[in-house]
## 1
Amino acid sequence: MNGKVKSILFASGALFIGIAIIQNPKEALDASQRGISLWWEIVFPSLLPFFITAEVLIAFGVVRFFGVLCEPFMRPLFNVPGAGSFVWAMGMASGYPSGAKLTARLRQEKQISKIEAERLVSFTNASNPLFIIAAISIGFFHDEQLGILLAVCHYLGNFFVGICMRFYGKKEYSHQIKRTFSIKRAFQELHETRMKDQRPFGKILGDSVTNSIQTLMMIGGFIIVFSVINRLLLLMDITPLIGQLFQSIFSIFGLPDVLSLPFIAGLFEITLGAQMTSETTSTLLQQIIIVCFVLGFNGLSVQAQVASILAETDIRFFPYFLGRILHGIFASLLALILFKPLYADVKQTTSGDVPVTDYVNAPSFWSETLHYFQHYGPVFTLTFLLIGVLIMFNRSRNG
């Protein structure tokens, strides 16, 4: 019976979206173009180098090398192997869903157990600094200093999620062998891992490129689909209806009703939610609390990407989802605590020395980086898509 109910719900949902697109073709097209522009200019060129590099490092045993070195602090802190440090660092640097992609890769390589993978994926999916500081802080709030606060709350909140999730499935902890720091053993693990992989360098690099491009194509599809769904839900007044349910909850925490609609939009797609939040008439602190929660929750768009990646393994989705809720709560609480020391006090000090117009209009590293991606990102994306096509065509011809 449950299976039949699921089938009816999925079919009804797909039919509803199809009818909504037919009724609102222009708005659906605009939302689709917005999603593909985000993927084309920012997501693909920013994630591809990290994905390819990670694939190569895993194949050459470098991840195993750093895993041995980092085991002494990753195991006590997060109850995961040292290789998790690589996933954690890459997840923060490149952004979601890199953490899920690399966790799944380590699980497929049998470098981590199922429970360890579920712990790891719960706290290694984070937004990258470019999106937090350039897109949100500068692009929406026009304030780079705000990006420091958002980044600290986001990454520190993820750290606390890792601490909490270390107790998930903790029975496995008693079976782990405690390892000490050993460079000799690290090099030995690196060599053994490399020897197990008999592929030549050209094959490894080709596989890394094609696998990364295929993953990014899937990510692009989810970004476009959820961009359209989010827009249609707004047009059909479904998002405002859901937002009314949160107004009573917001009133308990002293948040204004105007933030309920951006909050719901952010639960579906982070970028739109953050943009709508920045345009409300609420106070800056209230806006930051909502943005921090939305960033930590990842949005259903990113969660769907993660679910698709994890479906290729035996890693369950629920620990990741639980981690997203915890991350949103931790990040919001940290924003409430750190707003004054990390932003208000610093802003008051700098505003006394630097004219406000100079501060806002001065070019920064992050704004220039965002402009660089928007300008050269499409060329980079097109180039590597062609490379991927050529590699797959050559393999099909030789195979």
Note: The chain has one domain: 24-398.
## 2
Amino acid sequence: MTAGRNYSIALLVCIAAALLCCVYFYFDPGDSAFFPKCPFLVLTGWQCPGCGSQRAIHALLHGDIAGAWSYNALLVLAIVPVAVLLTAEMLRCRYPRFYHAVNSQWSIWGCFAVITAWWIGRNIF
């Protein structure tokens, strides 16, 4: 890919993210009808690992960390690892060892284990 194309894609992703942030800032997913409901929750009555994420994003955009934590604590905790992953991706060519360490098989399985534990734990407690 050319550098110009990479910058265009990055710009489009940033614009889309900004638009989504505006939507989640101005509309409360708990009160708005156009936000989708979790199909897993609707079908089973159990919460999936992502249940409450839309409301948590809305709360985070309003600075309500405690509210976001109550909706989905995993989403709040995942902010740091996602930032590390994005940094590793941006610095992939400059620091390939860092990129490979962050995207190693151990870190992938670790994320899988944390998400699975969260899924089970939030439905038990």
Note: Residues 1-72 form one domain.
